[in-house]
From TrEMBL, chains A, B, C:
Its main location: membrane. This is Trimeric intracellular cation channel family protein. The keyword Ribosomal protein does not apply. Belongs to the UPF0126 family. Keywords: Cell membrane, Membrane, Transmembrane, Transmembrane helix. GO terms for cellular component: plasma membrane. The chain crosses the membrane at residues 12-31, 38-59, 65-86, 123-143, 155-173.
Length: 207, 207, 207
């Protein structure tokens, strides 16, 4: 029951671009927090903005999405320049967390949808959404030498899993992408938002 | 002289599943040691269980093995749930090391065999076994913020190299997979076992 | 206006081999600095020597360059054995930095050229050069538990970007590879060399 590639549609394409932009911003902000140079800003913006989607495309055997046009890298470069040129106080506090939340929900949804569109089985399609939503942030944290977001107590992977699972379930239930996509992305974003705002977390493992 | 894909046979398929299961368990245990949530357990089990084979398949140009069926992820999810639901003292001590040893030997052997089956040259086929056997544990350690197993003094990469080299040599010598596979896996497992049990190590570099 | 694969020519192939050899040496030296065993030397030499080119080939959809012949791994193994067998004082001081500089410039140039040869758009071709030149060193630093070269103050990514951008620009301007290649590699090497020698750096971000 995989959906056709063209059915990914406009809404999902916007989710994809939103994911790329906000992850690129979050990468540039991580470089900023470490007082790096403009070139490292660009490097971090590209790696974080494209990392998740790159892994997704390699796994499903699709051509890597940013290789055959200049647009995606322009977006990442623009994100880096925006962060570089604006006062740091604009980005203080939880800005990075909220950008990351948008990227997480958008990428988890789009990743699951693209997986289904390429004929991936349902469970791997869900995993595709989760993995690719998390990979950008994971690489960013690894390169910056920060503790991985994966290991922090708040809900994070869970929010990506909610978006991805919902996208797969709603699509298999027959909903078109322009309805399933926003619903799935919104659910994951709200859950991650509650985690940021109220400190929600799943129960941790007790030995 | 590459062997045909079907000759990989039943024994090697069991080695593959064994590698996936025990690496998934070791990933879940690493999440448990860090007091993570169930969702992070699942994430670590999937990444550690499938990481090595994923890199292998990307390198040899094969379709990534877990993408087109639900079975492999079910195994990883089951491993995560088993670790989550059982008392931690079951897994104390060197359990993680021994599981990792089984995964290492099984994956090194199967990785080399699959490399040969896909027409990879002998030396890269051996490297394929080693790299893919080590990648799961390396990613697990990186994500958990642990020092990489690569850098610990005991024999580790060496045991994978023994299994992989033996598998390539025995296959090129004409032995069928159902004999070469168990022999190669057993040799690597024994060597790694001696390293765990007796603290065996290769001589370190002296400046 | 992509150049044909055969036009990569002899000079670029030498740049490629130079990149592999010096990154392999730098990987082995990192293993040596951590007092590792011979097998870990080999592992680090292979990962560091082939890592950048592997990522490049996966991204552009080319067969991974070291998989179908034994030669590349022989080079990496030889690099590991050379470092293992020679007195450490030969390699003291800034040796690792200078080897890394040669590899960086060579790989950035060759990566951009191979990207163009495979029909990649200009901006991604430049990024291909940068990413693949930096990936070997990044993986080496991650595995060795060292702070990433990316985060150190000196010019590093910038030098790779200079080589890659020059290679793309000169090629699009119509220069043949045997002129554009050495020019681009030399420019990047000189810039990185000045960074090592005089401590040159770009201005860092001010909050």
């Amino acid at each position: 029951m995989p959906i056709a590639a063209e059915q990914l549609g406009l809404v999902l394409q916007w989710l994809d671009l939103a994911g790329i932009l906000v992850f690129a911003l979050s990468g540039a902000l991580a470089a900023g927090a470490k007082r790096q140079t403009l070139v490292t800003f660009l490097f971090f913006a590209v790696i974080t903005g494209t990392g998740g989607g790159t892994v997704r495309d390699l796994l499903i055997g699709a051509p890597v999405f940013w290789v055959h046009s200049n647009v995606i890298l322009f977006i990442c470069f623009a994100a880096a320049l925006i962060v570089w040129a604006t006062p740091a106080r604009l980005w203080r506090g939880k800005t990075l967390d909220w950008l990351d939340a948008v990227g997480l929900a958008a990428y988890a949804t789009f990743g699951a949808a693209k997986g289904l569109a390429w004929g991936v089985a349902p469970l791997p399609a869900m995993a595709m959404g989760v993995l690719t939503a998390c990979v950008g942030g994971i690489i960013r944290d690894l390169l910056a030498g920060e503790p991985s977001i994966l290991m922090r107590p708040e809900l994070y992977v869970t929010a990506a899993a909610l978006s991805a699972a919902l996208m797969v379930a709603l699509t298999l239930a027959g909903l078109p992408g322009f309805i399933a996509g926003p619903l799935a992305a919104l659910a994951g974003f709200l859950l991650r938002g509650l985690a940021i705002w109220r400190g929600w977390s799943l129960p941790a493992y007790k030995a």
